[in-house]
Amino acid sequence: MAIEAWQDKALKAQEARDASLAKVEPPLKGLPIEAELPLNSRNLPREVLTEREIEITEKPVSELLAVLRERRISVEEVTRAFLRRAAVAQVATNCLTSLLWTSAISRAKHLDSLPEPKGALFGLPISTKEHHGMVGENVLSNASYVSWIDKPHGSNVLYDTLWDEGCVFFARTTQPQTIMHLETNSNVYGRTVNPYNRLLTPGGSSGGEAALIGMRGSVLGIGGDIGGSIRCPAAHCGIYGLKPTTQRISLAGSRSHCAGKETILATCGPMATERDSLSLLMQVALSSKPWRIDPGLTNKPWTPYTLPTDRPLKIAVQWWDGVVRPHPPMIRALKEVSEACKKAGMDVVEWDCTGLDHKKAWEITAALYWPDGGEEVLGLLEESGEPVLPLTEFIISEQKSVRKRDMHELWKLCAERDAYRAFYANAWNRTASDGNQEVDVILCPPSFGAATPHDQSRYWGYTAQWNLLDYPGVVFPVTSVDPVKDGKVEGYEPVNEEDRVVYEMYSPERYRDAPVSLQIVGRRGCDEMVLAALEVVERAMGRA
Amino acid sequence: MAIEAWQDKALKAQEARDASLAKVEPPLKGLPIEAELPLNSRNLPREVLTEREIEITEKPVSELLAVLRERRISVEEVTRAFLRRAAVAQVATNCLTSLLWTSAISRAKHLDSLPEPKGALFGLPISTKEHHGMVGENVLSNASYVSWIDKPHGSNVLYDTLWDEGCVFFARTTQPQTIMHLETNSNVYGRTVNPYNRLLTPGGSSGGEAALIGMRGSVLGIGGDIGGSIRCPAAHCGIYGLKPTTQRISLAGSRSHCAGKETILATCGPMATERDSLSLLMQVALSSKPWRIDPGLTNKPWTPYTLPTDRPLKIAVQWWDGVVRPHPPMIRALKEVSEACKKAGMDVVEWDCTGLDHKKAWEITAALYWPDGGEEVLGLLEESGEPVLPLTEFIISEQKSVRKRDMHELWKLCAERDAYRAFYANAWNRTASDGNQEVDVILCPPSFGAATPHDQSRYWGYTAQWNLLDYPGVVFPVTSVDPVKDGKVEGYEPVNEEDRVVYEMYSPERYRDAPVSLQIVGRRGCDEMVLAALEVVERAMGRA
Predict the structure, then answer these.
(1) CA distance B281 to B279
(2) Is the complex ipTM higher than 0.85?
(3) In A89-219, where do the E strands start and end?
(4) Which segments constitute the Amidase domain (chains A, B) (predicted)?
(5) Of residues B144, B186, B229, B480, which has the active-site annotation?
């Protein structure tokens, strides 16, 4: 048993967070008390912030970078505006583990004092997931484990690059227990809620980032993804999120359990209010040649992809994954976007999952997450005595394929993984048979539906599939749940138990205001192409 | 216990090999009986083959490809010439597991019958390591395990590509027990010896390839490397060999123990009589985009590297690795080549291994080879009852860091590996400090000396170091042991037990005629640069 009660340790972390927020100056005035917060928090910033702060925090990123570079607005003013807006987001969604008031303003002043603006991100405020660590001294991180509260931490390879390019780190954000929920709830910081509807999850595990950016308390943040942890929360909060192919962006220096496990890899990636910020972040991250420092990374520069002009983009629409039928608003989003693509002249076909066995893929994936049966993680929880949360139970103990494996069982599992990857690659290759153009990208749901009510995110297939395959995936906002258009399909007969649970979860009323997003997935290593495809798809949707 | 004695099973494999060689037509005449074979076999082909066969098999590869493409010599005639020369190599060195007489000639006839020559390798005979499998029907492979004799096998991703590009597979070559010796001896096919001196090893594990190519019984072959298995035998047999960064060339489809193990990866690579054949093979292998079929591969085309013209190449010479002092001929080779580089205007500095702890690197590497303590492999040997050979004992049981690990011990080991890789990358980065140009490549020994007497290859550090780091390495011939120039250093005081054994092994007389080669190593992923560097180094040596 722990000597100190876990609640006392957690309280210390919460007090540290609260103390960091208490520095906000001028203090936030006019916010409702928690019990009176509206369901949808998106308008709260306008009620609290100055017009000038609203103007600054709602500028397009390209414009923000331009005014910073041209020194038409000081870095300090921009930083203060985002700090205050992030504080509002915290009240609304509980998305922060720490507001870096002092260090961010000191950094801003330093940047303002430079004779010349320097770096591709000069003066841009960037928010970060807590367990990644941070630039600076006396940094702690706990990765949402009570046992790790007060554990000293350092910076990491990616953050050092962003720092060198002149950014301002100003807020650290929440993640769930074990960092392995598609929601964001921990015994350390409590539950993060969705900016659009506080009865819904912001998703996870990078749910703090998503909620913060969904409130525009940040325009660019860094998440991590091993099963959907960037894409799911980006989708649920109506923002953009990219999970690149692994080993392009460094994770080195992040704190997590299972260090040294390589059965299935995580990756960092950008989460943002705008599409262009995704490629900006990738460009900046890779232009530093991070493989010189983290030699596990692929030595391959970021090379923007130019789509061929002599043929249309070929998009395969995945209407469902053969396991769980998406909710009506998701189907509508797929219809709307694929129709727009067709109208714009693209070659739209179907990504038929029959025979592709996404169910088996999930069983392999879950086993790859916990080749020790979850022993290390459960031990970490036991160490502090903090309760095991339901979604932790779900992802470890309730997965039938998860068990402690010996070395030969591990090799067998990895061989199964590799065989499945080759099998899926072959399915993709076959789209090019008979002289047809190969499918360029898959358009698919990033989840079975919009953000779920709390503790209901128990199906990972729509994101984790692409982690198993290590295919890059980008999520973008499409629409929001519409009670008129998105009525429940009556009389649907679920094809399995998971499908039944998901079907029964839906009613348009529960999902009020919830954003609905889609995902574009490309073959492994085709990160640049996925972003190029997103651009033409959004153009087809009538966006800039 | 095995039902059938292992000797009987091995005999069957030997008989199959002999039957394949008995097809040679016209039969080889005038070869000495085994007891009367000369120490150096390099002149044997001239005593047995026709002038025309010698002419064909000794053409530069570019010329050979040109005459084949222009149909000035038929594929069949070229194939027959190499088949007969390979048969001579077999008598001299015992390098073959099978001569593909029938299928190669039938393939040649097919290629001759095509209206147009097709493919970048049109008509080129290529030899292959036995455990990689083969294109065709009724293929067997045993990977040198008696237990696996008669086991059906198929082709693999790389060989399919070479086949599509018009090559002729004509010979399969030996590898040692477990494919984990730096020599080539197995209970299935016996011992392969060095073309230059039959008392010496050809190296291993791709020793059959090296001996065959060293006899010019093949001009281009495919080996595999996880600890030196391409580079060591290439060095010992005076040929060229490239170990690329892993995951550039596919291994998928090869037969080996420990399938699914990913602690340290092997890679295929070219072994050749000429430098240019290395880039040819890489170019051809990657132009097929093999990552579409083997999705573990890096999606990165082969992009020949152009050395900068505004500064000299910066080469760091590794005189020794801090563990085992190279023999005198190796030191002389380093001196000769580094002097030539200096004269050609290159920036030649030292790669000082002090503080880089190559000894620790080896301990990690050995542990990574056998995270199950070697259990699977030893079980495979026990299954047939075949004896465990001394170099198998050496690489498993005699390595102190090798033991069966549980999952958490495995993760710890992998984390140690990653930390060492980052540490070494940082050392390389530091060569660029203070405004200096970063070191481009390291010039280093591929072994502590020339080919060792049999069963003496017990130090892997000069090659395995670069497997642990996953740095590409290319080996090229430099000189041969010279009793006059390469006298033993008297009075040297070994710094450790391994150093003592290696020191005592040397006397110039034992190494008569042995080739001495060097290795050029680049950073991970810099395969193209390593080959570009080799070209300028060889030019500096006065070669074409």
Answers:
(1) 5
(2) yes
(3) 96-99, 125-129, 139-140, 152-153, 168-173, 185-186, 190-191
(4) 77-531
(5) B229
